[in-house]
Design brief:
The chain is α+β, with helices and mostly antiparallel strands and 71 residues long. The chain is built from three helices and two strands, in the order E-E-H-H-H. It has a domain at 23-54. Helices cover 39% and strands 11% of the residues. The longest helix has 15 residues, at 25-39.
């Protein structure tokens, strides 16, 4: 969450007694593994992978949300 003041963007301070995010060792390891994989790829390989994402996630169906002003 961000707020703007005098043309500058500042991160909003967490609410008092609000649980703080805890760094996950599993998430960090997964991130590092993915970054190592990406660093090992050529630009062409990255582009080919990006262009094939629609095939990799073809099982996902888009959801259309229709909302009226009265809802």
């Amino acid at each position: 969450m961000k707020r703007v003041g005098h043309g500058r963007v500042h991160a909003a301070l967490p609410q008092k007694n609000f649980p703080r995010a805890v760094a996950s060792a599993s998430a960090r390891k997964s991130f590092e593994r993915e970054m190592a994989r990406l660093h090992g790829m050529s630009v062409e390989e990255r582009i080919a992978e990006a262009l094939s994402l629609d095939e990799a996630f073809s099982w996902l169906e888009p959801v259309v949300i229709t909302r009226t002003r009265d809802s």
